[in-house]
Specification:
This protein is of the alpha/beta class. The chain has one domain: 3-Layer(aba) Sandwich (Rossmann fold), CATH 3.40.50. Helix content is 33%, strand content 15%. The chain is built from 5 helices and 6 strands; from the N terminus they run βαβαβαβαβαβ. A 6-stranded parallel sheet has the order 2-1-3-4-5-6, with helices on both faces. α1 crosses α5, α2 packs parallel to α3 and α3 packs parallel to α4. It starts with a strand and ends in a 9-residue tail after the last strand.
């Protein structure tokens, strides 16, 4: 299959790209490292155009509300086509304890942006059967961004990619939403 992914050069996105490649899929990546600044609306248009022939779009890179914009752009372009849009959200939208605001490097609008993505997915599930829309909310993962926060028991990016990709290719049922949490008694 042909797969496009934003944020393919670091963290979970890099691990998903590696998993897909290792399993014989053709991966097209979009990130700042190869000239795609997801923060620019013109870049979103380029990503949509250059992903016209892929089967799966993985909406991974976080930049404010840009993930939600990409979700709606791809859904409109792919309406009634047997394609899949996988949105990488956050378990933070399940647990609003606000301790993350105490961290000086925490992106201010992160939870609001991810909650917007949650809502967009839920709205589009009821709109049409195709494209298939998935929402996956990883738990704390040992990515470069997580290096700023002293959280124990982080999942490795490759383990998270294995869980995500297994859900994408699940054939026994239609996965709409998966929420992950760290498997420990420590929740921060």
């Amino acid at each position: 299959m042909k797969v496009a992914i934003t944020g393919h050069s670091k963290g979970i996105g890099q691990a998903i790209s590696a998993w897909m490649t290792d399993h014989g899929h053709v991966v097209q990546g979009f990130s700042r490292s190869n000239g795609y600044d997801i923060g620019l609306d013109s870049t979103l248009d380029r990503i949509l155009q250059e992903s016209a022939n892929v089967d799966i779009f993985i909406n991974n890179a976080y930049v404010d509300m840009q993930q939600t914009k990409l979700l709606y752009m791809f859904h409109e372009a792919w309406l009634n086509k047997q394609k899949t849009i996988v949105n990488i959200g956050s378990c933070r939208t399940q647990r609003l304890d606000h301790t993350h605001f105490q961290r000086p490097t925490y992106p201010r609008y992160y939870v609001a942006s991810k909650a917007s993505l949650d809502y967009g997915c839920k709205e589009l599930w009821n709109y049409s059967a195709w494209p298939r829309v998935m929402l996956i909310k990883p738990c704390g993962t040992a990515t470069p961004r997580a290096a700023n926060y002293p959280v124990p028991d982080l999942v490795t990016p490759s383990d998270m990619a294995d869980l995500i990709c297994s859900a994408i290719f699940e054939t026994r049922c239609r996965v709409q939403e998966l929420n992950f949490d760290i498997n420990s008694s420590h929740v921060n």
